[in-house]
Amino acid sequence: MRCHRRFVRTAATAVLLLLAACRPAPPAPVRLEWLTMGTVAAVQCADAAAAPHVRDLAQRTFQSLDNDLSAWNPASTLCAVNAAAGTPRPVAVPPDFAAVLQAALGFCADSEGAFNPLIGPVMQAWGFNGGALHPVCPAAEDLVALLARTHWHDIHLTTGAQATVRLALPGMQLDFGAIAKGYAVDLAWERLKAAGHTNLLIDLGGNLRALGEAAPGRGGWRTGVRNPFQAHALAGKFLMRDGEAVATSGNYERFVEIDGLRYAHIMDGRTGQPVTGMAGVTVIAPDAATADALSTALFILGPQRGAALLRTRPGCEALWIPDTPERLTVLATPGFAARLTPVGDTPYRLTVVTP
Ligand code: ADP
Ligand code: MG
């Protein structure tokens, strides 16, 4: 009798397995792309019918933030604040502007000025963001003069019914390039969630945030870590869980060449020098503004000081790839190391860095 029951159970399991094998795989998520904020934005949706609505909401959100935070749009709030630098006149700013500035100032304090939202004039001196077409290395005394305009205590932010910002010295310039895209992703994520959407991934120039999962039972969204030394190749992959954000800062996409040497678009706010020695940093965080800002801050600080900064940031994990093209090396916090799996035939040498 017992034998018969076991046979029935085994047969039933076999039928279920067969049915599962025959069931068509869930369709791949639909991906819709567009250009905004100087980069490519995309949404991926498990529910194809919802994709255009998700795209429209995200698009509107990014556009309205760009009107506030863009350094390229002369009509933006950011340009108005920068233009009024050194005058006694505070500039009224919308709540999102004040929130981005406040968050940026927090990262500035935590990184002891390595991350600095006043990096604008230094970026230009090195030929970025409208600087010289054929830049030369700024002279030491010029950098000292520029760094004098990057003291964050010279930013006067008042919050309340109407937030205002005043930059105390002429020539000071805010630059939200390291945090604005992440903030925009968070705002779109919150609006999409409030509107009842789920099972989607938002991507704004490599700033990602997941809502739900890519397919039933998948547990999240599979995400790759770029191999900085090989175009279109991945160094590893991991699963982004519901609600999580991921951002990457790299030296391979935006750089200038001076005297045959490449300088990446991330400056050390303490010295005004472009960061060298690092190829890429990827951060997992509970929100996209944090992931965005931290990927830049940890790119500057490197693994040891960077990992120490993460002690006060629960839910954040980081991964560093030093600029050693001859050998793909990965340094990662324990939580990231545990989630990362290698891809293809490019094995990396992994070192775990403890915060
Ligand atoms: P990407 O914009 O390519 O995603 P990041 O998020 O790392 O890369 O941001 C780089 C941008 O951050 C630069 O283009 C510049 O606008 C800004 N930036 C550069 N250095 C600093 C710094 N030390 N602190 C804050 N922002 C910075
Ligand atoms: Mg960033």
Give the strand content: 25-35%
Largest sheet, strands/sense/barrel: 9 strands, mixed
Percentage of residues in helical conformation: 25-40%
Strand order in space, largest sheet? 1-2-6-7-10-15-16-17-19
Looking at CATH, the homologous superfamily of the largest domain is: ApbE-like domains
Overall 3D form: globular
The total count of helices amounts to 9
CATH classification class of the largest domain:
Alpha Beta
User: What is the first-to-last residue Cα distance?
Assistant: 59 Å
- Rg on CA atoms, Å: 23 Å
Average pLDDT figure: 92
Q: Give the oligomer, counting copies of the same chain as homo and different chains as hetero.
A: single chain
Number of separate strands: 19
Query: What ligands are attached or bound here?
Result: adenosine-5'-diphosphate, magnesium ion
The number of distinct structural domains comes to 3
Textual characterization of the structure:
The chain is α+β, with helices and mostly antiparallel strands. It has three domains: 26-71 and 177-212, no CATH class; 73-167, T-fold, CATH 1.10.3980; 220-355, ApbE-like domains (T-fold, Roll). 34% of the residues lie in helices and 26% in strands. The protein has nine helices and 19 strands. It has helices at 2-22, 51-69, 77-83, 95-110, 120-125, 140-147, 180-194, 288-309, 334-339; strands at residues 30-36, 39-45, 91-93, 155-158, 163-167, 200-204, 207-211, 221-226, 234-240, 245-250, 255-258, 261-264, 267-268, 273-274, 278-285, 317-322, 329-332, 341-342, 349-352. The chain has a nine-stranded mixed sheet with strand order 1-2-6-7-10-15-16-17-19. A three-stranded antiparallel sheet has the order 3-5-4. Strands 8-9-18 form a three-stranded antiparallel sheet. Strand 16 (317-322) and strand 17 (329-332) form a beta hairpin. Helix 2 runs antiparallel to helix 7, helix 4 packs parallel to helix 8 (288-309) and helix 7 crosses helix 8 (288-309). The chain is globular. 44% of the residues are buried. The model has no long low-confidence stretch (mean pLDDT 92). It binds adenosine-5'-diphosphate and magnesium ion (MG).
